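Risk register update: the risk of archive-format incompatibility is retired. Evidence:
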Amino acid sequence: MLPDDYIPDVALARSSQDHFVNVSGRKLLDFCKLNGLRICNGRLGTDKGIGKYTYVGSSGSSVVDYVIVSESLLNNISQFCVCDPNILSDHCTLTFSLTSKQKHEQGDLNEKHYGQRIDKKYVWKPEETENYVSGLNFHKEELLNLQSNLREANTGNEIDENIGYFSNLMGKVCDPLFAKTIRTDKLNNYNKTKLQPWFDEDCKSGREIFYGELNNYRVNKSTQNQRKLVEARTNFKRIIRRKRFEYDKSKTDKLVVSQHKNVKEYWRMLKQMAHVENKSSVTSEKFAEYFQAINNPNDTFYQADDDILFFNERYIRGEFQVMFEELNAEISLFEIQKAVKQLKNGASGGPDLFLNEFFKNGSDTLLKYIHTLFNKLFEIGYFPDKWSDGFIVPIYKKGDKNEPVNYRGITLLSTIGKLSTRILNNRLND
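Archived output:
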């Protein structure tokens, strides 16, 4: 029975390949009538006038999957499609698009950006060590020219320009060997399928067989072709289950071994197998605002470092005069060699993108240039501004991951800049 105030919908024909109506189907139709809802299948898009099967399985074919909307929303559906049978499920995918007359406000789309986007980074590859050293030797003459120009430099701008040339030279050597592109726009890669590591030739063969049977079914939707399609899908799913099991077992065996031999690799694999992800909705702009605020002396929440305040007070009183005279002594090649050996492998690069491995494996060629550079800085009393710049990496501590206050900032500074300060630190500790 329909309610007394029921207003009938505007008549709109609906087609369907499934001509069998059971009790559940009648209940669905009654529900739609009582609530003013419309079934999109067989009425819209590429499915208009067809009403394609949404289930193709071993028990037959039927329409059991629907897109149901209100009468007012029906005109907002611009596209509707019932896709062909797929390789992973008996149910077909239903796709549709909604249009909206509301315009987006442009104000939030043009937020200011902090700094610049980084499109690459360096990843050290031990197998490329020999090629790296050969590349440095190939540009040895250019390094000598830069070293000679450094000796003639008298201003900070001249040194900055020289360091810029040195960075470009290092890029020529390192880019072909260690450069890795950083994906900044995930949308550009949304439709790219990433195969799982266990997806081998057997899986590809099973997939090709299924698509062959699918093409046959598209041409002739006979019972025999449907049965072959279902068998091909079942066989493919059986193959991938077996391959996934074998892969997981192999990873587990490696995990057990690494627990005692390589702790770092053990925890990396453990997080990977547990699917631990650090997802956060905090944007880079929000992080930038937060870290700027806590380092801004004019901000309410700013808190100065007590060690820095104490150091400044002692400096004003002249307590460090004797110490500074010792620190101002010329830097020796031995001190640079010592500092280079102390550099740790696997550390991330700063704004200059240089890795510690660049200096550890190329010290024979780079040492004299670095020696000249550091002593020239001492001679004219200059510290490059770029060496004070850094990448702030937010490290989650605890609490809500969507709140910037729950992150601790780790600053990645210039690698060659840190090498110079390490030498001074060694002098203080010796």
